[in-house]
Write the structure tokens for this entry.
Amino acid sequence: MTTIAEFMANDHQACDAKFADAEAAALTDDWSQAEPAFNAFRDGMARHFRMEEDVLFPALKSSGGPAGPVHVMLMEHAQIKELVKQMGAAVERKDAQEYGGLSETLLMVMQQHNHKEENILYPITDQILAAQRETLLGQMQAV
Amino acid sequence: MKIASLSPEQAPPISLPLRFFAVAPLFLVLAALLLVTSGGNPFAELRSPAQVAVTHHITLGFMAMVMLGAIQQLLPVVIGSTMPATRWVAWFTFLPLIAGALSLSAGFLLGRPELLNLSWGLLGLTFLVFIAASLASLARAEAKNATKIAIMLAIFSLAGAVTFGVLLAAGYANGLALPYARLATAHISLALGGWVLLLVIGVSYQVVPMFQLTPNYPKWMTAWLAPAIFAALLLNLVLLLPEAAPRWTAFVAEAIFWLLAVGFAAVTLRLQSQRRRRIPDAPLSFFRLGMVSLLVAALLSLAALAFPDAGDLLRTLSALAFLLGFALSLIQGMLYKIVPFLVWFHLFRGGVKTGVPNMKEIILEPWMWRHLWLHGSTLAAALLAVWWNAAVWLAALGLLLQGVLLSYGIFTGIAVYRRTLRKIEQTSTGGSP
């Protein structure tokens, strides 16, 4: 059976793929491709954050999970959202150079964030919320 | 659970790693100046005083300087455990490393025993502090992964390399009767084959899939590669001990080491060829040049085993490919990622959203590409210099320009950091100048 860690790590990879597609299109100034690719990436990220912020983190909190790590993850979400917002503005202006600099920065932040979640937070979640796992996976898929 | 490792305060202040990174390129410049002023051809004369001096400017002054700074920055992130007494460790590694590298080279060049005696004391202190702090940090880390094991084995190798290095320097300074050739072999193989290679392997396990968006390294490989390389190095050391170990045993032990290195380079290049992120990226190209150079270094050393008549020449070429090609490519490529990121990270985490330059506005990409070409040309010149004396000048010029370019990049990063910070502070205090 899929663990929460596996399910969420797979979603990270799906977002990575969308990230790479959007970046490749933007950097070749192919905005007819880049715009929908960026939108797909932005929506994928937004959905991933909702799964965590609306389902996973509250469940963790109400089961007495550690508040500190969740707080740090939320701060990093805010950083990532800000960068994605700035990337959206670069797409609107069709500014490949700006997009490339922002996406380079986002990649570094996002990957370190994902690494911490996959190696620390999700394994904690799988332990603490083992009994509710299937319900939670269902709720996250429905987001 | 490793909850503490998610603390936002785990990153040391930006001045800590940048201090190491800012000084390191100056040693490339010094190495270049030594190359042209020492007379003769240090590339062709193995273990001449000039060659030893130039080599240690590069290995201690540049490589160790960056590696020590980077590890003090990275350990908290990669294995989730901070170094004890961060500031003390930083100063007691940074200052004695500078003084130790300078006095070692000067001691060899000028033939001054008192400088050599000073140098081994200083360098011994540097690495004792660093090794103790790193091991304390590793012991506290609850993470149990292949990276942690590889870094630990790299640090054990460093401890051995430093011990042999101290013995060599003290021996030369005081005219002790020591088996110098065998000690030097042990020193070099642990420093480069152990410390440098194992550290690169441990860091690559994380960095390559994460930032280059490649598949993960195969699990079986991350489980045994670093321990196998460490075991091969120990086997090579043991075979140095008896006066007359059968020749074939040393042959087999060395071949095993280089074949493992080939395996690592080949798998890394293959993973990188499968990367999802396919845009041109100068640091990635540095990394790939480094991996190709590691392959070349391994093949040259294997050829030296197969053709003992040309052994000295092939080994010299292999050492150049390893040091300038493999180690220098990776270190410089890494600096071009880590410096812009640190500047951005320390500006952005203050909660300021606008006015923080993105990574590509901190060190401009065209400079990184120019540096890559310069670096490739320097490597080619250094390999040619083994035969052709005039190429020594080219290699020295290349090294000099690389030191200058890297300094320029790093100081630009520091300038952008300071300027932006000032602007942010002015805005937050109401805009008055």
